[in-house]
Amino acid sequence: MTDTEAAPGGAPGKADRAGPRSVLVTGGNRGIGLAVARRFVTAGDRVAVTYRGERPPVGENLLAVRCDVTDSQQVDQAFKEAEAAHGPVTVLVANAGVTNDRLLLTMSEADFTSVVDTNLTGAFRVTRRALRGMLAQRHGRIVLISSTAALSGAAGQSNYAASKAGLVGLARSLTHELRARDITCNVVAPGLTETDMGQALTDEQRRKLLDMTPAGRPARPDEVADAVAFLAGAGYVRGAVIPVDGGAGLGH
Questions:
Q1: Could you say which of 22, 29, 164, 234 would form a disulfide bridge with 146 (CB–CB 3.0 to 4.6 Å)?
Q2: How far apart are CA 144 and CA 195, in angstroms?
Q3: Of 92, 189, 96, which is closest to residue 141 (Cα–Cα)?
Q4: What is the tally of helices (H) and strands (E) in the chain?
């Protein structure tokens, strides 16, 4: 068995234990994505982050790559830059996402499809590209960042909730396709989190979300990063959805 080859039955090979990993985090310039990227840097990994507008803060030990995940050519170029600097990507965190909230009756088709194209099809694009190197290395960890809205729904967010729910089906279908290979795909579903997206909520929206959260407070981005870091090292957790929501998704 080679250093990167899985043992029979998908047991972890040396790739889980030896040396720094090449990590790519989409939407890693702020919020949850930046917290996740920092966690991997702290662990000694080589980390690239994609951004569409605002670059990561100066001084971060990150390779910043401009990429719009709705563009397959930009996705391919981002991977090429990450691979040239750090080697084949063996940990992918698909975090890039957008919202465009409004009630369904006032939502245009473009309002719906643009959110789905970024949040769901964007995750498809980066996951498909990452699999090239992972299959060659016979090792990989894919973590898709979803939301509790995917499981419970949210008024005014049918586009966002649908896109995030699609990530669960994507991860579980890919789990069947990969089977015994040492490549996993799992989902983290944060609830209300202290990010720019969370701050954009109205006071009423925030109050309702906190009322549904037994923990009584939003998550910190680093608490979401805890779950991502766990999945990036867990070879026998496959197709799982891990809620990081303070109990807001009880029953799901």
A1: 164
A2: 18
A3: 92
A4: 9, 7
In this structure, which amino acid lies at residue 163?
A: S
pLDDT for residue 1: 35
> What's the rounded Cα separation, in Å, for the pair 151 and 149?
5
Catalytic-role residue among 127, 160, 165, 213: 160
Name the token pair of 122: 């964007």
The residue to which tokens 């720019």 are assigned: 196
**149's tokens:** 């809205």
236-246 pLDDT, tens per residue? 999 999 999 88
pLDDT tens digits for 98-156?
Answer: 999 999 999 999 999 999 999 999 999 999 999 999 999 999 999 999 999 999 888 89
Helices (H), the chain: 31-42, 72-86, 109-116, 122-137, 149-152, 158-178, 196-199, 203-211, 221-232
What pTM was computed for the model?
0.89
Q: How many Cβ atoms are within 10 Å of 220's Cβ, its own excluded?
A: 15
Residue 77 burial (CB < 10 Å; 0-12/13-18/19+)?
Answer: middle
Helix (H, G, I), strand (E, B), or coil: what is residue 18?
coil
Contacts of 4 (CB under 8 A, 6+ apart): 13, 14, 15, 137, 138, 139
